[in-house]
Specification:
The chain is an alpha+beta fold and about 300 residues long. The chain has helices at about 20-30, 35-50, 50-55, 85-90, 110-125, 170-180, 185-195, 200-205, 210-225, 225-240, 250-255, 260-270, 275-285; strands spanning about 1-5, 10-15, 70-75, 80-85, 130-140, 145-155, 160-170, 295, 300-304. It is globular and about 55 Å long.
Length: about 300
């Protein structure tokens, strides 16, 4: 698995010939149910004993109290060995045991799951912690979830990397958490009401009664994005809402204030990792149960 780095540290996964383990896993899931059930059961049992087998303490129950952050832990094969209560609720699971042995491919379209898997592999292969990386996750209905994710390798008692764990902070839930401060209420409302216009960051600073430098510094502290990046993401978010039912990408570009289709496509790809057309194809294929994966050909990302 190789990756393309795009935008603010985001990556999009590309398939390669270096994924025999993952291909075997997919092939195994296609076998008759009489064979798949024992395999799934064995995987759950192995994942249930992951922490004990590696001499690691099980995650703290305090993770279940987090109201805006998903906690997850996976083994090297990408199978979940733990998830906090918020993650269980997100995937409509009754108990942590229900997530054991599953992978991101059980919950997301293939292209999204491949992208997450590429991130995980990079952390496990390099041993380097990734902090507050922006991830854009599509639920399959055109709605995007913006996550700020931190991932770190899990090491066993000998120091060998045996998996990955991390936190994904839901940007919307986090905004609700900081809402009592009201520092940015006026400018956020202005952005939402004027997405089709050329929004001046200086004007947003004045709405917040701050100097430009203070506004930009405080805004990034709260949202982990600069004001300019936030405006761009909101425009892309609105575009993702419009694209599923749009007959013309050019009209979506105009409706979201990007102007020309070429500029819109460039900015959209810098955030989501694929072009607006590829996004439409992925949504349509996802609804049909056959989502495409995306890979690089020359300087372009193509579907397959």
């Amino acid at each position: 698995m190789s990756t393309i780095v795009v935008g603010m540290g985001m990556v999009i996964a590309m398939g390669s010939g270096s994924e025999p383990g993952e291909r075997k896993e997919r092939q195994r899931t296609r076998r008759p149910s009489s064979v798949a059930r024992p395999c799934a059961s064995a995987a759950r049992e192995e994942c249930a004993g992951f922490f004990a087998a590696n001499g690691i303490s099980t995650p703290s129950t305090l993770f279940d109290t987090l109201s805006d952050t998903y906690y997850f832990a996976k083994n090297r094969a990408g199978q979940f060995v733990w998830g906090n209560r918020l993650l269980q609720e997100q995937h409509a699971l009754a108990d942590v045991k229900d997530i054991l042995g599953k992978t991101d491919h059980d919950f997301f379209r293939r292209d999204i799951a491949d992208r997450i898997r590429a991130d995980d592999l990079a952390v496990m292969e390099t041993g380097v912690t990734v902090k507050n990386k922006l991830e854009v996750i599509d639920g399959g209905n055109g709605e995007l979830t913006w996550l700020f994710t931190t991932k770190a390798p899990i090491r066993n008692r000998e120091g060998t990397i045996v998996g990955i764990e991390g936190f994904s902070r839901d940007a919307r839930r986090s905004q609700d958490t900081i809402a009592p401060f009201h520092e940015f209420k006026a400018c956020i409302e202005y952005v939402q009401e004027h997405l089709t216009e050329n929004i001046s960051i200086d004007h947003l600073a004045k709405l917040s009664c701050m100097s430009l430098s203070t506004f930009e510094r405080k805004f990034k502290e709260h949202f982990s994005l600069t004001p300019k990046q936030y405006v761009l993401h909101m425009k892309v978010h609105e575009a993702c809402r419009l694209l599923p039912g749009a007959n013309s990408i050019a009209r979506v570009a105009l409706a979201t204030g990007f102007g020309g289709q070429s500029y819109f496509t460039k900015q959209f790809r810098s955030i989501v990792g694929i072009t607006p057309k590829q996004y439409q194809l992925a949504l349509a294929a996802g609804r049909a149960g056959n989502a495409p994966s995306f890979h690089r050909k020359g300087n372009h990302v193509e579907a397959s």
